[in-house]
Amino acid sequence: MRRPAFYALLLFISGILLGNFFELPVVLLFSIFSLTLLFCVLFLLRRERGSANLFLILSIILAGFFRHELLTREFPSDHVTSFLNLNSKVTIVGKVVEESDIRKNKTFITLDTEKIYVDERKYSTTGQIILKIKEPTFKFDYADNIKFKGYLNEPTSRRNPGAFDYKKYLNRKKIYGIVSYLMRNRLKF
Are 155 and 173 contacting, i.e. CB atoms less than 8 angstroms apart? Predict the structure, then answer.
C-alpha cells in the first residue's frame, strides 16, 4: 500500500470526528482500544494479515476518539469546570489572554482563571472562561489582571439537531465557562 501514513491520518481524524458526536467514558474507550491493539498483534503473530489489518484500522480510529475524549472530558480537580453552574455569585480573578472581541453592543474577553472565591473561600484554579460584558468597551488589554463577581455558567449546547453547538466550539478552543457582566458593577484591575 502506498502512502500508509496518509491513510492512518485519515483514520485518526475520523476517530476525532466520532468523538464530536458520541461520548464514551475514557476508561471504557481505553479498554476497547487496548483490546483491538492486542487482537491486532495476536493476528499478526498468527500470520492472519486480513484480520490484523482490520484490528489495526479499528485501533487507529479508536486512538483518535480516545485523544478527543482526553482533551475534552477529563480535567484536574482545580479546573474551572468544577465551579460551573453553582447558582450563586463567585468572585473570579484572571488574566486576559487574547485581544478583546468588541462588538456593537457587547464585549467578549477570554480569561485564564487564577483564583475563584466561593462563599468567601479561595480556590486556585486553571482553565479559561469568557467574560461577556453587556456593552462595548476598550478598557481591557492583553495581559491585564481582572477581578469581578458573577455567575459562572457552562456554555449552552446545541438545542436543535444540526444547529451550531456553541459549547463544543468553545471547548475546542479550551474555553469552558461564561460569565455575563454589566459594566456598571465596575471591574477591578
Answer: no
Does one domain contain both 12 and 58?
yes
The stretch 134-154 carries a mean pLDDT of 89
Query: pLDDT category, 157, cuts 50, 70, 90?
Result: confident
Measured CA to CA, the distance from residue 130 to residue 153 in angstroms comes to 10
Which of 25, 40, 73 is where one domain is finished?
Answer: 73
Grid cell for residue 63: 486512538
Is the pTM here over 0.70, yes or no?
no
**179 vs 129: CA distance, rounded Å:** 8
Listed in sequence order, the residues at least 6 apart from 59 whose beta carbon sits closer than 8 Å to its beta carbon are 33, 36, 37, 40
Sign, CA torsion 187/167/114/119: positive
Residue among 2, 21, 59 at smallest CA distance from 158: 21
Containing structural domain, residue 8: 4-73
Question: Please, where are the H alpha helices in the chain?
Answer: 4-21, 26-45, 49-73, 166-172
Same domain membership, residue 180 and residue 120: yes
